[in-house]
Amino acid sequence: MNRRFYCEIAGFCGKHAFNVHFHTLNVHFFFVQKSTYMKISILMPLLYHNDTIMKNDKICVFESEILHILLANSILSTTMQFRKIKKIQFLKVSDYMKTITRTKYLDRIIELNGTPDIKIITGIRRSGKSKLMQAYIEYLKSNFENINIIFIDFMDLAYEEIMEYHALHAYVEEHYQEGKTNYLFVDEVQMCPNFELAINSLYSKGIYDIYVTGSNAFLLSADLATLFTGRYIEIHVFPFSFQEYCQYYDDVSDKDKLFDDYTIKGGLAGSYAYRTEKDRTNYIKEVYETIVTRDLVQKYALPDTLVLQRLSEFLMDNISNLTSPNKVSQLLTANETPTNHVTVGKYIKYLCNAFVFYDIKRYDIRGKKYLESSEKFYLCDSGIRYAILGSRNMDYGRVYENIVCIELLRRGYDVYVGKLYQKEIDFVAQRGSEKFYIQVSDNISGQETFERECSPLLQIRDAYPKMIIARTKHPKYSYEGIEIHDIADWLLQE
């Protein structure tokens, strides 16, 4: 139920009509009685628990006849035999969904408070962009008095009438308050056609501190310079890190169990609400398929999705392998998905633009130059790979390599694949004057494997730190100047 679409249930409760509105994970019941609207929010899985809504053994039972549920492209009919309404209990999604403060991102936005730039929050679907915006609004309300917050969420039908750029501009101007610091927040901005005309006009006035979020496929990093004529700063949000995952599951003390679970579940926190693996993976599949089969198709007017889907699955299955469009097109064509290197090259770019994959270029350490012949592609979240491919070709060494790569990007490093003579170094990470070399492995307990991982690092003659990150389950130690880290410990360091 993670797709951003609207579903409604219409029915009768005695003399009182009601509607049910589905929006992502939220289920909203609206009871209409004497022009009074009452709202109750629950999680979708609870709706079908014996036709009741349960919380702490308290039950809300609703009377009705037949409910017709419009769900995506299908219509489901459910007969619900209700007895009587004993009690209406008002619940919040937060009663079921645990939230954590994503301090790193929140601190970054706070740092930018008052700067003249347009602040643009980007990231893959369901990575927490809207939640971050809401957390920042709460911070402003708690810490500043003389402020005026103008908040617009285009997923909320309450703002449907201003879903046109002239109307959006007029609405903001009407809600401006003289003598106060005026903050403008627009969530899901891409739903307003030509939104950039309104945002740029408001920016030019110099009287608003502007923050926007949007669907990843329609507010791409590559498009920002074209869309926004004024200065802007991008705040890129990744799915949950392992550190954030541990914060979420703070009732579990076993670090190794948490890491094993994180490897499978990944960082799309919306999936954590589901109790079964099937429901969790279905949630992640829906997020992924929405991006690949809807967002990108709509954004780039693609004639079909088959090549895009097969390409994406191929990249997932070949994480950490050097890849080129020509090689991929040959393999896809050989497997009955005819295409060519031009199409593959374009589609890889689209997937990277939408933050599904991150491309990591090769760097010649000895020659100190970048190599253009081939690249490696890493998936934005390991949970997506498991949800789509299952345990097929589950190479934990590659999965760990993917997790480390995304974590380095999350920490703000520029990341490259290192080449030294005929050997590859998994990652060269650089941030300002800081630089280090990394090898990632699953199990290095065997002498042969250990020596193989150490060998390319020992050949590097400069003084920058070198490390191996593996599933050691031991405290950090060193060998010949190389630091050996347990991956779970390393992920928790920052």
Characteristic key phrases:
494 residues; 3 domains; eight-stranded mixed beta sheet; 16 helices; globular; disordered N terminus
Protein topology:
Blueprint: E1 7-13, E2 16-23, E3 26-33, E4 36-43, H1 44-47, E5 53-55, E6 58-60, E7 66-71, E8 74-79, H2 103-111, E9 118-122, H3 129-143, E10 147-153, H4 165-174, E11 181-187, H5 195-205, E12 208-213, H6 221-227, E13 232-236, H7 242-248, H8 255-265, H9 277-300, H10 306-317, H11 325-334, H12 341-353, E14 357-364, E15 369-379, H13 382-389, H14 396-410, E16 414-420, E17 423-431, E18 434-440, H15 447-458, E19 466-470, E20 477-479, E21 482-486, H16 487-491
Parallel strand pairs: 9-12, 9-13, 10-11, 11-12, 14-16, 18-19, 19-21
Antiparallel strand pairs: 1-2, 1-7, 2-3, 3-4, 5-6, 7-8, 14-15, 16-17, 17-18, 20-21
